[in-house]
Design goal:
The protein is of the alpha/beta class. The chain has one domain: Rossmann fold (3-Layer(aba) Sandwich), CATH 3.40.50. The chain contains 8 helices and 6 strands; from the N terminus they run E-H-H-H-H-H-E-H-E-H-E-H-E-E. It has a 6-stranded mixed β-sheet, with helices on both faces. The two termini are 24 Å apart.
Length: 193
């Protein structure tokens, strides 16, 4: 099996940010969440206070004002599926594992479109933005992966971020992906160390 980060790796961009902007165009009143979102980001990134999960939970609080339905998610992916990277669409296999910090509810419909069964992602309640557990990032990705696949062997792990080094260490080989856009990418072996 191969394992893949999603945002910036399989998908050319950040699906959570794209979903937020897409919702903001449909529901302009969501702008009222911006001050709290900005404060939470400033607190986390600049002041180094709080956890990434806490910061992202404040970010996703906008979901309280969005009627997240199967149809809404279908519309989003109808528009954004084109951002799936061509290299991944050529390489994908049924046993691939997608592991992402983005919300599971957001990625699940796309996984069905791709014919993929294995998704590990942040568990976010679509009606409130509340996290069920930790943000699926860094070491948490390894914990989630090993909880679901205790004995699994990862042939290759792909990501665009060095913060995924804990997952890269789980694989026989790992590749750092730099997508220039959905059609073009550069690949390098994961740095040692």
């Amino acid at each position: 099996m191969n394992a893949y980060d999603f945002d910036g790796t399989v998908y050319a961009g950040d699906s959570s940010a794209d979903f937020y902007r897409w919702c903001l165009r449909r529901y302009p009143a969501l702008v009222r969440y911006a001050p709290r979102q900005a404060l939470a980001a400033l607190r986390y990134y600049a002041a180094k206070k709080g956890s990434k999960t806490e910061m992202k939970q404040v970010f996703f609080s906008f979901l309280r004002s969005v009627p997240v339905t199967d149809y809404l998610l279908k519309e989003f992916w109808d528009e954004h599926e084109k951002k799936l990277c061509a290299w991944y669409l050529r390489a994908k296999r049924e046993d691939d594992v997608i592991i992402s910090a983005s919300p599971e509810f957001l990625l699940r419909p796309l996984m069905r479109r791709l014919g993929l069964q294995q998704l590990l992602a942040s568990r976010v309640e679509p009606d409130s933005g509340r996290f069920e557990g930790l943000n699926c990032h860094g070491v948490e990705k390894v914990l989630r992966f090993r909880a679901r696949f205790p004995e699994a062997k990862i042939e290759c792990f792909y990501s665009d971020r060095l913060s995924d080094t804990p997952m890269a260490r789980q694989a026989d080989s790992a590749v750092l992906v730099k997508n220039r856009d959905a059609q073009h990418a550069d690949f390098t072996l994961w740095p040692k160390g």
